Q: What sequence folds into this?
């Protein structure tokens, strides 16, 4: 269940609460990425300490290893992973893109999420063939065939037991043309109908009877397709919505896609933006009415030595830089993360230079806490009637940020 | 300062306390290995939670990166790493072996520490040349020359500021003959004298004026050499002693080496056994009067998926084994480590199978806690007048184990 607590004046932003069978998520919220059931390099104890409220896992990867049945046998994701708070699962639709057109086109969902980040290079032939029936994958583990129909994606997600699950969709590429995107969209709508039927038919399967199936809006960066998709998916009665697929070739494209979509979605339902996590992107999307975000970038950047800070151009520093070799300060003065509380930039640089495993955790702790703080600042701004952008400038005083 | 609190009847074991400028270590104790300033995959917060009381770092590796001066500038190891409790540093003498004869002979300090563990394979030519003046290394980072004299090893350790430091020595190989071992030993004794002089001359250097310089006993697996070395080093007045070098070609050799050495050392001073951490080895060494141990095996095994348990043959399980795929139990029933408190064998196996970074930390947490518990059990047995071997069989009730 989703409650809007207050609305901003002058933007579509709203402060809310998403109530799930495993707890309440304060929105706007960042959903930490735990593709295979763990946030890379962190434990559940860490996530609690960071104030993380919700995780997203990936149905495709978990279906390969250890399998939906194995996870169900351990009480679903909540029991298996030890994260007893809210879970989302993506349907495998993103892998339709990332293992398919994403590889062939050598591109991400958008040209560049973080400034300076190089677009992905082509990594080979597609591992995906789509038919009306579903998505025929090759396993990234052993190359064996893996078939996801809309029904199978629901069955697997019933077994995983996340609190919010998604229908199988086709996430298209920024380089797909209008005709392809339209045809893909229409198939995705047919798959959404099948997912709803499968969702009803599988009531009672798996560990979490209170699961919610949200719809995914597609349509690439084409205004009419986005609007048609949002109206179509909204018309199916989903209790929440995800904005998926290609977001175009620029940040401006992305914001337009969000505007077109949100305008067609019901006001009283939550909206999730799939795979976006840049600081300015999040603020702009919140202003346009998005409630939740997931993105692997903060954790992936951490493992590459890129640490997020409010005080720097581009909100990031490269800790490998020689200027940190003798820097006794924490990553960011005033940051309340466990890493900044105890370690200097000089020590963190030493760890990354020597390839110490400890680095991955300490860096990830900081970046995830940065995202939690960012969204807490956004909520604090909304709660006090300030514009969303005040999240970057207001002194941070929200006592509930923890 | 070292205090013997009580002595076992029927063995040379003793319960004690080692007081350092950064806190007291209850002995017998396990010293966790933090070669480059961090226990691999763990943070300082983790170490506190595990009940670890003391760490050992390596002067050679830290001298290469980030350098003694850099660490001194951050308050020494205590300030730089965030571990504000007792530190030991090894002198670089072990690298004389591991980068020298250890590589050429393809052997460790002893044939096999843990049952079934393959001895190291020859890994190439020696990176060390020894002269009377000191040890001429090649850097493992970039191949550049690195010179450690006994004086330089002391100077560097003054800069690092560990609470217990060691003189440069030559750690010989089990395959060195009597003649070589004897000549090396005599040089090591001359180096120990030089280290003592250097230690006095450098008073005031570095962040920790309360450092203690312990002596290292060498002599391979030759009875007369070990006894001569122990008497010679003890005669120099060191406040504590480490048993270094080759421990022979078998566990029996190792135990004899310990017996010969301990018999010649003063009763009132602490004794550290360098680089040994097998369960039965520790118990046997405690019975022979050893107080502290360090060993990289528990953490290295963890990273390789080998988890220590009291309940299994050989005190270990391989979590990758298929039998754990559906095992809902913790690694060990009754283990109070953070990993066993939250995660099943099935989940840990999933993490190791999928190569998740989180695995390294969760496995290391368990294995380090195992070592802490083992030594706490040893102390509990000694405190209640039970034989050391009771550590493996008595119900574990020591409330101070944390």
A:
């Amino acid at each position: 269940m989703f409650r809007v607590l207050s609305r901003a004046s002058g933007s579509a932003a709203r402060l809310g609460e998403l109530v799930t069978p495993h707890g309440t998520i304060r929105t706007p919220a960042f959903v930490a990425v735990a593709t295979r059931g763990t946030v890379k390099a962190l434990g559940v104890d860490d996530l609690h300490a960071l104030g993380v409220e919700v995780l997203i896992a990936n149905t495709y990867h978990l279906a390969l290893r250890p399998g939906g049945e194995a996870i169900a046998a351990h009480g679903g994701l909540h029991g298996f992973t030890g994260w007893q708070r809210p879970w989302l699962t993506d349907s495998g639709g993103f892998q339709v893109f990332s293992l398919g057109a994403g590889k062939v086109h050598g591109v991400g969902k958008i040209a560049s999420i973080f400034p300076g980040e190089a677009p992905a290079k082509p990594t080979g032939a597609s591992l995906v063939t789509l038919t009306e029936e579903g998505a025929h994958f090759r396993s990234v583990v052993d190359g064996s065939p893996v078939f996801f129909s809309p029904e199978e994606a629901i069955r697997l997600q019933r077994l995983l037991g996340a609190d919010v699950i998604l229908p199988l969709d086709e996430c298209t590429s920024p380089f797909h043309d209008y005709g392809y995107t339209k045809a893909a969209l229409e198939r995705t709508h047919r798959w959404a109908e099948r997912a709803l039927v499968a969702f009803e038919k599988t009531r009672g399967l798996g560990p979490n009877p209170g699961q919610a199936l949200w719809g995914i809006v597609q349509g690439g960066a084409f205004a009419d397709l986005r609007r048609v998709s949002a109206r179509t998916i909204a018309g199916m009665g989903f209790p929440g919505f995800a904005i998926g697929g290609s977001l175009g070739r620029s940040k401006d494209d992305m914001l337009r896609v969000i505007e077109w979509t949100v305008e067609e979605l019901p006001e009283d339902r939550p909206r999730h933006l799939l795979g976006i996590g840049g600081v300015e992107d999040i603020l702009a999307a919140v202003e346009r009415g998005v409630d939740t975000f997931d993105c692997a970038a903060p954790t992936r950047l951490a493992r590459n030595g890129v640490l997020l800070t409010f005080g720097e151009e581009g909100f990031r520093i490269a800790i490998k830089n020689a200027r940190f070799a003798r820097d006794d300060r924490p990553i960011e003065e005033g940051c309340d993360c466990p890493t900044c509380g105890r370690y200097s930039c000089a020590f963190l640089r030493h760890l990354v230079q020597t390839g110490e495993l400890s680095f991955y955790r300490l860096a990830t702790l900081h970046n995830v806490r940065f995202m939690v703080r960012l969204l807490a600042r956004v909520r604090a701004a909304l709660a006090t009637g300030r514009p969303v952008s005040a999240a970057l400038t207001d002194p941070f005083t929200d006592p509930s940020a923890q």
